[in-house]
Amino acid sequence: MTETLEDLRKRIDKIDLELLELLNKRGEIVEEIGKIKEAQGTNHYDPVREQELLEVVKKNNQGPFSTPALQHLFKQIFKASLDLQKVETKKVLLV
Amino acid sequence: MTETLEDLRKRIDKIDLELLELLNKRGEIVEEIGKIKEAQGTNHYDPVREQELLEVVKKNNQGPFSTPALQHLFKQIFKASLDLQKVETKKVLLV
């Protein structure tokens, strides 16, 4: 049976909640990484690591999104994650 | 035991693969929705629906990402999804 617009939208809603949960789980891990980097005194931004992650996206993409479209989205996720580390660092500096 | 940078990065890699899979699954559903809208002759961009989805993000966000940061990411996902429908429409028009 063909799914209705309503059915498809319910599936999107479910996926969006999963995406939300995964993104926040990613954020938590990134905060942990930020603390380690802080302690080590190393730079938060790591272009080599970012490039590796973008390669993983390219290698594992089965569509329908194009690899450039997905890499663009992941770059936004990396940027938001880096901003999260900056907020955490600021908190540390304020106390 | 505290996790090492290596352990944390492995967890990020796993999450990124899950994100990739979920995004493409979302893309497939969005393409289905695009076909229905095409058949109905309705507009692909639906600002009311988009606003509803952003409210869902706000309501269900448990952090550490801020709601504006997540809403920004989701807007990028919506935009990429809309672009995907446009590509599909173009394909239909070309055959």
From TrEMBL, chains A, B:
Q: Which residues of the full protein are shown?
A: 1 to 95 of 362
| Domain Chorismate mutase residues, every copy | 1-89
Know the name of this protein? Answer: Protein AroA(G)
Instruction: Give the encoding gene's name.
Output: aroA
